[in-house]
Specification:
Blueprint: E1 2-6, E2 16-20, E3 22-23, E4 32-33, E5 39-40, H1 65-69, E6 78-82, H2 83-87, H3 94-106, H4 110-121, H5 130-147, H6 150-156, H7 170-177, H8 180-195, E7 201-206, H9 216-223, E8 231-238, H10 250-264, E9 268-274, E10 292-298, H11 314-323, E11 329-335, H12 344-363, H13 371-390, H14 403-412, H15 422-432, E12 439-444, E13 447-452, E14 455-463
Helix pairs in contact: 3-4, 3-5, 3-12, 4-5, 5-12, 5-13, 6-13, 7-13, 8-15, 9-10, 12-13
Amino acid sequence: MTLVIRSKNRRFGDQLAVGHGQPDASITQANILNDQGSLSAQPTPLHNFLPVPADEMITRASLTDEQTEYFSTTDEQTEYFSTTDSLGINTGDLKQVIIACGKAAAGNGIYETEVLISELRQLVSISGDPMQRLGACMLEGLVARFSSSGSKLYKSLNCKEPTSPELMSYMHLLYDMCPLYKFGYMSANGAIAEAVKGENFVHIIDFQIAQGSQWITIIQALAARPAGPPCLRITGIDDSNSAYARGGGLDMVGTRLHSISASCGLPFEFNAVHAASHEVYIQHLDTRPGEAIVVNFAYQLHHTPDESVSVENHRDRIIRMIKSLAPRVVTLVEQESNTNTTPFFQRYLETLDYYTAVFESIDVALPRDDKTRISTEQHCLARDIISLIACEGAERVERHEVFGKWKARFAMAGFRPYPLCSLVNNTIKTLLDDYHRCYRLEERDGVLYLGWKSRMLVVSSAWR
Protein backbone atom coordinates (compact mmCIF):
# COMPACT_ATOMS: atom_id res chain seq x y z
CA MET A 1 0.00 0.00 0.00
CA THR A 2 1.16 3.55 -0.75
CA LEU A 3 0.50 6.76 1.06
CA VAL A 4 0.03 9.64 -1.37
CA ILE A 5 0.94 13.06 -0.01
CA ARG A 6 -0.41 16.13 -1.82
CA SER A 7 0.81 19.48 -0.62
CA LYS A 8 -0.07 22.83 -2.11
CA ASN A 9 2.54 24.35 0.15
CA ARG A 10 4.89 21.39 -0.32
CA ARG A 11 4.88 20.71 3.40
CA PHE A 12 4.88 17.02 4.37
CA GLY A 13 1.64 15.89 5.96
CA ASP A 14 -0.59 18.78 4.94
CA GLN A 15 -2.82 16.58 2.83
CA LEU A 16 -3.16 12.83 2.55
CA ALA A 17 -4.92 10.57 0.12
CA VAL A 18 -4.91 6.83 -0.27
CA GLY A 19 -3.98 4.94 -3.41
CA HIS A 20 -2.32 1.87 -4.83
CA GLY A 21 0.51 3.32 -6.85
CA GLN A 22 -1.69 6.21 -8.04
CA PRO A 23 -4.31 8.35 -6.27
CA ASP A 24 -7.83 6.92 -6.24
CA ALA A 25 -10.02 9.29 -8.25
CA SER A 26 -12.94 8.72 -5.87
CA ILE A 27 -11.05 10.59 -3.14
CA THR A 28 -11.57 13.86 -5.01
CA GLN A 29 -15.34 13.38 -4.72
CA ALA A 30 -15.24 13.53 -0.92
CA ASN A 31 -16.44 9.95 -0.62
CA ILE A 32 -14.92 6.51 -0.37
CA LEU A 33 -15.83 3.77 -2.83
CA ASN A 34 -17.09 0.56 -1.31
CA ASP A 35 -16.20 -2.76 -2.87
CA GLN A 36 -19.32 -2.80 -4.98
CA GLY A 37 -18.15 0.40 -6.68
CA SER A 38 -20.84 2.68 -5.28
CA LEU A 39 -20.25 5.84 -3.35
CA SER A 40 -20.99 5.81 0.35
CA ALA A 41 -21.10 9.00 2.36
CA GLN A 42 -22.07 7.23 5.58
CA PRO A 43 -20.61 4.20 7.35
CA THR A 44 -22.36 0.98 6.45
CA PRO A 45 -23.39 -1.00 9.55
CA LEU A 46 -22.19 -4.56 10.05
CA HIS A 47 -25.69 -5.95 10.00
CA ASN A 48 -26.25 -4.82 6.42
CA PHE A 49 -23.46 -7.14 5.27
CA LEU A 50 -23.55 -10.22 7.48
CA PRO A 51 -22.47 -12.84 6.71
CA VAL A 52 -19.98 -11.54 4.15
CA PRO A 53 -16.23 -11.00 3.95
CA ALA A 54 -15.00 -8.06 5.99
CA ASP A 55 -13.71 -6.27 2.90
CA GLU A 56 -17.35 -5.92 1.86
CA MET A 57 -18.50 -5.03 5.34
CA ILE A 58 -17.44 -1.49 6.09
CA THR A 59 -17.11 1.71 4.13
CA ARG A 60 -15.15 4.71 5.32
CA ALA A 61 -16.49 8.01 6.56
CA SER A 62 -17.15 10.83 4.14
CA LEU A 63 -15.09 14.02 4.10
CA THR A 64 -16.26 17.59 4.55
CA ASP A 65 -15.99 20.15 1.76
CA GLU A 66 -12.99 21.70 3.47
CA GLN A 67 -11.29 18.33 3.71
CA THR A 68 -12.12 17.59 0.09
CA GLU A 69 -10.17 20.65 -1.00
CA TYR A 70 -7.03 19.06 0.38
CA PHE A 71 -7.41 16.23 -2.10
CA SER A 72 -7.37 18.48 -5.16
CA THR A 73 -5.69 16.92 -8.18
CA THR A 74 -4.55 20.24 -9.61
CA ASP A 75 -1.21 20.22 -7.76
CA GLU A 76 1.49 18.67 -9.89
CA GLN A 77 3.79 18.05 -6.95
CA THR A 78 3.10 14.54 -5.59
CA GLU A 79 5.27 12.46 -3.32
CA TYR A 80 4.93 8.79 -2.38
CA PHE A 81 5.86 7.24 0.90
CA SER A 82 5.32 3.72 2.13
CA THR A 83 2.93 3.44 5.07
CA THR A 84 5.57 1.73 7.16
CA ASP A 85 8.18 4.43 6.53
CA SER A 86 5.94 7.46 6.95
CA LEU A 87 3.86 6.28 9.90
CA GLY A 88 6.43 4.10 11.61
CA ILE A 89 4.28 0.97 11.81
CA ASN A 90 4.41 -2.52 10.42
CA THR A 91 1.30 -2.77 8.28
CA GLY A 92 1.50 -6.55 8.42
CA ASP A 93 0.93 -6.45 12.19
CA LEU A 94 -2.83 -6.17 12.64
CA LYS A 95 -2.68 -5.24 16.32
CA GLN A 96 -0.17 -2.50 15.59
CA VAL A 97 -2.42 -1.09 12.86
CA ILE A 98 -5.44 -1.17 15.21
CA ILE A 99 -3.47 0.73 17.87
CA ALA A 100 -2.16 3.23 15.30
CA CYS A 101 -5.74 3.91 14.16
CA GLY A 102 -6.80 4.70 17.70
CA LYS A 103 -3.81 6.95 18.29
CA ALA A 104 -4.51 8.89 15.10
CA ALA A 105 -8.20 9.21 15.99
CA ALA A 106 -7.28 10.44 19.47
CA GLY A 107 -5.16 13.17 17.91
CA ASN A 108 -7.93 14.08 15.44
CA GLY A 109 -5.58 13.25 12.58
CA ILE A 110 -8.24 12.90 9.92
CA TYR A 111 -5.91 12.17 7.03
CA GLU A 112 -3.60 9.83 8.89
CA THR A 113 -6.66 8.03 10.26
CA GLU A 114 -8.16 7.69 6.78
CA VAL A 115 -4.95 6.06 5.57
CA LEU A 116 -4.81 3.70 8.50
CA ILE A 117 -8.50 2.83 8.23
CA SER A 118 -7.94 1.91 4.60
CA GLU A 119 -5.06 -0.34 5.66
CA LEU A 120 -7.05 -1.85 8.53
CA ARG A 121 -9.95 -2.58 6.23
CA GLN A 122 -7.75 -4.93 4.22
CA LEU A 123 -6.68 -6.90 7.29
CA VAL A 124 -9.89 -7.63 9.20
CA SER A 125 -12.45 -10.38 8.70
CA ILE A 126 -15.64 -11.32 10.51
CA SER A 127 -14.78 -14.99 9.93
CA GLY A 128 -11.07 -14.70 10.67
CA ASP A 129 -9.01 -15.22 13.79
CA PRO A 130 -9.95 -13.41 17.02
CA MET A 131 -7.87 -10.30 16.27
CA GLN A 132 -9.28 -10.04 12.75
CA ARG A 133 -12.84 -10.27 14.06
CA LEU A 134 -12.22 -7.78 16.84
CA GLY A 135 -10.49 -5.51 14.33
CA ALA A 136 -13.63 -5.52 12.19
CA CYS A 137 -15.68 -4.32 15.15
CA MET A 138 -13.17 -1.65 16.10
CA LEU A 139 -13.01 -0.50 12.48
CA GLU A 140 -16.76 -0.03 12.46
CA GLY A 141 -16.44 1.96 15.68
CA LEU A 142 -13.79 4.24 14.19
CA VAL A 143 -15.87 4.87 11.09
CA ALA A 144 -18.92 5.65 13.23
CA ARG A 145 -16.82 7.98 15.38
CA PHE A 146 -15.79 10.03 12.35
CA SER A 147 -19.34 10.25 11.05
CA SER A 148 -20.89 10.83 14.50
CA SER A 149 -23.23 7.89 13.97
CA GLY A 150 -22.14 5.75 16.92
CA SER A 151 -25.27 6.19 19.03
CA LYS A 152 -27.60 5.34 16.14
CA LEU A 153 -25.53 2.31 15.17
CA TYR A 154 -25.38 1.11 18.80
CA LYS A 155 -29.17 1.14 19.00
CA SER A 156 -29.55 -0.71 15.69
CA LEU A 157 -27.10 -3.47 16.60
CA ASN A 158 -29.19 -4.89 19.41
CA CYS A 159 -29.47 -8.39 20.81
CA LYS A 160 -32.83 -8.95 19.16
CA GLU A 161 -34.39 -12.31 18.49
CA PRO A 162 -33.30 -13.97 15.23
CA THR A 163 -36.01 -14.16 12.59
CA SER A 164 -35.81 -17.95 12.58
CA PRO A 165 -38.16 -19.13 15.36
CA GLU A 166 -36.17 -22.26 16.18
CA LEU A 167 -33.11 -20.27 17.23
CA MET A 168 -32.51 -18.93 20.71
CA SER A 169 -31.78 -15.26 21.19
CA TYR A 170 -28.29 -14.07 20.38
CA MET A 171 -27.81 -13.37 24.06
CA HIS A 172 -28.59 -17.00 24.85
CA LEU A 173 -26.13 -18.10 22.19
CA LEU A 174 -23.44 -15.98 23.81
CA TYR A 175 -24.50 -17.39 27.18
CA ASP A 176 -23.78 -20.89 25.86
CA MET A 177 -20.57 -20.04 24.00
CA CYS A 178 -18.64 -18.82 27.00
CA PRO A 179 -19.28 -18.93 30.76
CA LEU A 180 -18.97 -15.20 31.47
CA TYR A 181 -22.69 -14.50 31.81
CA LYS A 182 -23.50 -17.89 33.29
CA PHE A 183 -20.81 -17.27 35.92
CA GLY A 184 -22.34 -13.92 36.83
CA TYR A 185 -25.91 -15.14 37.13
CA MET A 186 -25.01 -18.33 39.02
CA SER A 187 -22.80 -16.54 41.53
CA ALA A 188 -25.45 -13.86 42.13
CA ASN A 189 -28.16 -16.49 42.60
CA GLY A 190 -26.00 -18.35 45.09
CA ALA A 191 -25.64 -15.23 47.23
CA ILE A 192 -29.37 -14.54 47.01
CA ALA A 193 -30.37 -18.08 47.97
CA GLU A 194 -28.07 -17.90 51.00
CA ALA A 195 -29.41 -14.51 52.11
CA VAL A 196 -33.13 -15.37 52.02
CA LYS A 197 -33.02 -18.74 53.79
CA GLY A 198 -36.11 -19.13 55.95
CA GLU A 199 -37.79 -15.96 54.69
CA ASN A 200 -41.52 -16.17 53.94
CA PHE A 201 -41.80 -13.04 51.80
CA VAL A 202 -39.06 -12.38 49.27
CA HIS A 203 -38.91 -9.37 46.96
CA ILE A 204 -36.26 -9.37 44.20
CA ILE A 205 -35.60 -6.05 42.49
CA ASP A 206 -33.80 -6.65 39.19
CA PHE A 207 -32.43 -3.51 37.53
CA GLN A 208 -32.15 -5.12 34.09
CA ILE A 209 -34.36 -8.14 33.93
CA ALA A 210 -33.99 -8.76 30.16
CA GLN A 211 -35.74 -12.07 29.48
CA GLY A 212 -35.92 -12.99 33.16
CA SER A 213 -34.04 -16.24 32.64
CA GLN A 214 -31.82 -15.64 35.67
CA TRP A 215 -34.78 -16.24 37.99
CA ILE A 216 -35.92 -19.63 36.78
CA THR A 217 -33.47 -21.52 39.01
CA ILE A 218 -34.30 -19.26 41.98
CA ILE A 219 -38.01 -19.97 41.52
CA GLN A 220 -37.34 -23.70 41.35
CA ALA A 221 -35.08 -23.62 44.41
CA LEU A 222 -37.56 -21.62 46.53
CA ALA A 223 -40.42 -23.87 45.48
CA ALA A 224 -38.46 -26.97 46.60
CA ARG A 225 -37.98 -25.79 50.20
CA PRO A 226 -38.76 -28.60 52.65
CA ALA A 227 -40.82 -26.24 54.82
CA GLY A 228 -42.77 -24.97 51.84
CA PRO A 229 -42.24 -22.14 49.35
CA PRO A 230 -42.25 -18.46 50.29
CA CYS A 231 -44.24 -15.77 48.52
CA LEU A 232 -42.04 -14.27 45.82
CA ARG A 233 -42.33 -10.85 44.20
CA ILE A 234 -40.06 -9.71 41.40
CA THR A 235 -39.78 -6.10 40.30
CA GLY A 236 -38.41 -6.16 36.77
CA ILE A 237 -36.82 -2.93 35.54
CA ASP A 238 -35.91 -2.36 31.91
CA ASP A 239 -36.07 0.46 29.41
CA SER A 240 -39.07 0.06 27.15
CA ASN A 241 -36.71 0.55 24.19
CA SER A 242 -35.00 -2.72 25.15
CA ALA A 243 -37.87 -4.99 24.16
CA TYR A 244 -35.46 -6.81 21.83
CA ALA A 245 -33.65 -8.26 24.85
CA ARG A 246 -36.85 -9.83 26.09
CA GLY A 247 -38.26 -11.19 22.87
CA GLY A 248 -41.28 -8.97 23.56
CA GLY A 249 -42.63 -6.53 26.10
CA LEU A 250 -41.69 -6.45 29.77
CA ASP A 251 -45.16 -7.70 30.69
CA MET A 252 -44.42 -10.85 28.69
CA VAL A 253 -41.53 -11.54 31.05
CA GLY A 254 -43.93 -11.35 33.96
CA THR A 255 -46.34 -13.73 32.25
CA ARG A 256 -43.52 -16.19 31.61
CA LEU A 257 -42.31 -16.08 35.22
CA HIS A 258 -45.90 -16.41 36.46
CA SER A 259 -46.28 -19.57 34.40
CA ILE A 260 -43.04 -21.08 35.69
CA SER A 261 -43.94 -20.23 39.30
CA ALA A 262 -47.41 -21.73 38.94
CA SER A 263 -45.96 -24.97 37.60
CA CYS A 264 -43.75 -25.16 40.72
CA GLY A 265 -46.51 -24.21 43.16
CA LEU A 266 -44.81 -20.95 44.17
CA PRO A 267 -46.97 -17.88 44.99
CA PHE A 268 -45.74 -15.13 42.67
CA GLU A 269 -46.27 -11.45 41.79
CA PHE A 270 -44.57 -9.36 39.13
CA ASN A 271 -44.08 -5.59 39.14
CA ALA A 272 -43.03 -4.19 35.76
CA VAL A 273 -41.10 -0.91 35.75
CA HIS A 274 -40.72 0.48 32.23
CA ALA A 275 -37.75 2.76 32.78
CA ALA A 276 -34.02 3.07 32.33
CA SER A 277 -32.06 2.64 35.56
CA HIS A 278 -31.35 6.35 35.96
CA GLU A 279 -35.09 7.06 35.75
CA VAL A 280 -35.94 4.79 38.70
CA TYR A 281 -36.88 6.27 42.06
CA ILE A 282 -38.01 4.64 45.26
CA GLN A 283 -41.73 5.01 44.50
CA HIS A 284 -41.32 2.73 41.46
CA LEU A 285 -40.19 -0.21 43.58
CA ASP A 286 -43.42 -0.83 45.51
CA THR A 287 -41.73 -2.28 48.59
CA ARG A 288 -43.89 -3.64 51.43
CA PRO A 289 -43.31 -4.13 55.15
CA GLY A 290 -42.03 -7.57 56.14
CA GLU A 291 -40.38 -8.36 52.83
CA ALA A 292 -36.83 -9.64 52.56
CA ILE A 293 -35.55 -7.34 49.83
CA VAL A 294 -32.94 -8.47 47.33
CA VAL A 295 -31.44 -6.16 44.68
CA ASN A 296 -29.69 -7.48 41.59
CA PHE A 297 -27.29 -5.46 39.44
CA ALA A 298 -26.10 -7.94 36.81
CA TYR A 299 -24.08 -6.35 33.98
CA GLN A 300 -26.22 -3.23 34.35
CA LEU A 301 -24.92 -0.58 36.72
CA HIS A 302 -22.18 0.51 34.30
CA HIS A 303 -24.94 1.74 31.98
CA THR A 304 -26.09 4.23 34.62
CA PRO A 305 -24.53 7.70 34.17
CA ASP A 306 -22.40 9.07 36.99
CA GLU A 307 -20.93 12.46 37.91
CA SER A 308 -18.85 12.53 34.73
CA VAL A 309 -22.01 12.53 32.58
CA SER A 310 -24.82 14.07 34.57
CA VAL A 311 -25.13 16.89 37.07
CA GLU A 312 -27.12 14.42 39.12
CA ASN A 313 -24.90 11.43 39.85
CA HIS A 314 -27.44 8.69 39.19
CA ARG A 315 -24.95 5.87 39.73
CA ASP A 316 -24.32 6.83 43.35
CA ARG A 317 -27.91 7.99 43.86
CA ILE A 318 -29.27 4.56 43.01
CA ILE A 319 -26.79 2.81 45.29
CA ARG A 320 -27.79 5.12 48.18
CA MET A 321 -31.48 4.62 47.38
CA ILE A 322 -31.09 0.85 47.53
CA LYS A 323 -29.23 1.11 50.84
CA SER A 324 -32.22 2.99 52.29
CA LEU A 325 -34.35 -0.13 51.68
CA ALA A 326 -32.18 -2.17 54.09
CA PRO A 327 -31.83 -5.07 51.63
CA ARG A 328 -30.81 -8.55 52.76
CA VAL A 329 -28.32 -8.65 49.92
CA VAL A 330 -27.31 -6.67 46.84
CA THR A 331 -25.55 -8.57 44.07
CA LEU A 332 -23.19 -6.80 41.68
CA VAL A 333 -21.80 -8.44 38.53
CA GLU A 334 -19.69 -6.28 36.24
CA GLN A 335 -17.05 -6.48 33.55
CA GLU A 336 -13.61 -5.86 35.04
CA SER A 337 -12.68 -3.01 32.74
CA ASN A 338 -11.79 0.67 33.08
CA THR A 339 -13.62 2.66 30.40
CA ASN A 340 -15.76 5.17 32.29
CA THR A 341 -13.77 8.38 32.61
CA THR A 342 -10.49 7.50 30.90
CA PRO A 343 -9.43 9.61 27.88
CA PHE A 344 -10.28 8.22 24.46
CA PHE A 345 -6.97 6.55 23.58
CA GLN A 346 -6.64 4.81 26.95
CA ARG A 347 -10.26 3.67 26.63
CA TYR A 348 -9.52 2.44 23.11
CA LEU A 349 -6.53 0.39 24.32
CA GLU A 350 -8.54 -1.00 27.22
CA THR A 351 -11.28 -2.03 24.81
CA LEU A 352 -8.72 -3.75 22.59
CA ASP A 353 -7.17 -5.63 25.50
CA TYR A 354 -10.46 -6.66 27.11
CA TYR A 355 -12.19 -7.84 23.95
CA THR A 356 -9.09 -9.62 22.67
CA ALA A 357 -9.58 -12.03 25.56
CA VAL A 358 -13.33 -12.28 24.93
CA PHE A 359 -12.91 -13.03 21.21
CA GLU A 360 -10.17 -15.57 21.98
CA SER A 361 -12.47 -17.34 24.43
CA ILE A 362 -15.27 -17.52 21.85
CA ASP A 363 -12.83 -18.75 19.20
CA VAL A 364 -12.40 -22.07 21.01
CA ALA A 365 -16.16 -22.60 21.25
CA LEU A 366 -17.36 -22.43 17.64
CA PRO A 367 -15.83 -22.65 14.15
CA ARG A 368 -14.74 -19.34 12.64
CA ASP A 369 -17.19 -19.58 9.75
CA ASP A 370 -20.16 -20.40 12.00
CA LYS A 371 -22.98 -18.00 11.07
CA THR A 372 -24.53 -18.00 14.54
CA ARG A 373 -21.20 -16.99 16.04
CA ILE A 374 -20.85 -14.19 13.49
CA SER A 375 -24.34 -12.88 14.24
CA THR A 376 -23.89 -13.18 17.99
CA GLU A 377 -20.61 -11.27 17.97
CA GLN A 378 -22.23 -8.61 15.85
CA HIS A 379 -25.34 -8.10 17.97
CA CYS A 380 -23.92 -8.63 21.45
CA LEU A 381 -20.26 -7.57 21.25
CA ALA A 382 -19.82 -5.25 18.27
CA ARG A 383 -22.52 -2.90 19.55
CA ASP A 384 -20.74 -2.50 22.89
CA ILE A 385 -17.40 -1.91 21.17
CA ILE A 386 -18.99 0.71 18.92
CA SER A 387 -20.38 2.54 21.95
CA LEU A 388 -16.96 2.53 23.60
CA ILE A 389 -15.14 3.85 20.52
CA ALA A 390 -17.66 6.01 18.68
CA CYS A 391 -19.66 7.68 21.44
CA GLU A 392 -18.87 10.42 23.93
CA GLY A 393 -20.75 12.19 26.70
CA ALA A 394 -24.32 11.16 27.42
CA GLU A 395 -24.46 9.16 24.16
CA ARG A 396 -21.93 6.63 25.43
CA VAL A 397 -23.80 3.79 27.15
CA GLU A 398 -20.87 1.50 27.98
CA ARG A 399 -19.04 2.98 30.99
CA HIS A 400 -17.27 0.21 32.90
CA GLU A 401 -15.38 0.57 36.16
CA VAL A 402 -12.97 -1.82 37.85
CA PHE A 403 -14.04 -3.48 41.08
CA GLY A 404 -11.99 -1.13 43.26
CA LYS A 405 -14.15 1.78 42.11
CA TRP A 406 -17.40 -0.12 42.67
CA LYS A 407 -16.16 -1.10 46.12
CA ALA A 408 -15.55 2.56 46.97
CA ARG A 409 -19.02 3.55 45.74
CA PHE A 410 -20.77 0.88 47.80
CA ALA A 411 -18.68 1.64 50.89
CA MET A 412 -19.52 5.36 50.65
CA ALA A 413 -23.23 4.42 50.58
CA GLY A 414 -22.82 2.44 53.80
CA PHE A 415 -22.64 -1.10 52.42
CA ARG A 416 -20.29 -3.76 53.69
CA PRO A 417 -19.15 -6.86 51.78
CA TYR A 418 -21.24 -10.03 51.94
CA PRO A 419 -18.70 -12.71 50.99
CA LEU A 420 -19.87 -15.37 48.55
CA CYS A 421 -20.05 -18.73 50.28
CA SER A 422 -17.80 -21.68 49.45
CA LEU A 423 -20.74 -23.53 47.88
CA VAL A 424 -20.99 -20.83 45.22
CA ASN A 425 -17.26 -21.08 44.57
CA ASN A 426 -17.43 -24.85 44.19
CA THR A 427 -20.47 -24.61 41.90
CA ILE A 428 -18.61 -22.23 39.58
CA LYS A 429 -15.57 -24.50 39.55
CA THR A 430 -17.80 -27.36 38.46
CA LEU A 431 -19.31 -25.14 35.75
CA LEU A 432 -15.86 -24.36 34.36
CA ASP A 433 -15.11 -28.06 33.95
CA ASP A 434 -17.25 -27.89 30.80
CA TYR A 435 -15.21 -25.04 29.30
CA HIS A 436 -11.70 -24.42 28.03
CA ARG A 437 -8.83 -24.74 30.51
CA CYS A 438 -7.74 -21.15 29.84
CA TYR A 439 -10.63 -19.82 31.92
CA ARG A 440 -9.42 -18.83 35.37
CA LEU A 441 -11.44 -18.48 38.59
CA GLU A 442 -10.03 -16.47 41.48
CA GLU A 443 -11.47 -15.65 44.89
CA ARG A 444 -10.27 -12.53 46.71
CA ASP A 445 -11.86 -11.73 50.07
CA GLY A 446 -15.17 -13.33 49.16
CA VAL A 447 -15.26 -11.75 45.69
CA LEU A 448 -15.12 -13.98 42.61
CA TYR A 449 -13.22 -13.11 39.44
CA LEU A 450 -13.45 -14.98 36.15
CA GLY A 451 -10.84 -14.41 33.49
CA TRP A 452 -9.31 -15.74 30.30
CA LYS A 453 -5.59 -16.49 30.62
CA SER A 454 -4.07 -13.45 32.36
CA ARG A 455 -6.98 -11.06 31.76
CA MET A 456 -9.76 -10.81 34.35
CA LEU A 457 -13.08 -10.29 32.58
CA VAL A 458 -15.93 -10.43 35.11
CA VAL A 459 -16.16 -9.83 38.85
CA SER A 460 -19.06 -10.93 41.07
CA SER A 461 -19.66 -9.54 44.54
CA ALA A 462 -22.41 -9.20 47.14
CA TRP A 463 -23.21 -6.45 49.66
CA ARG A 464 -25.51 -5.75 52.57
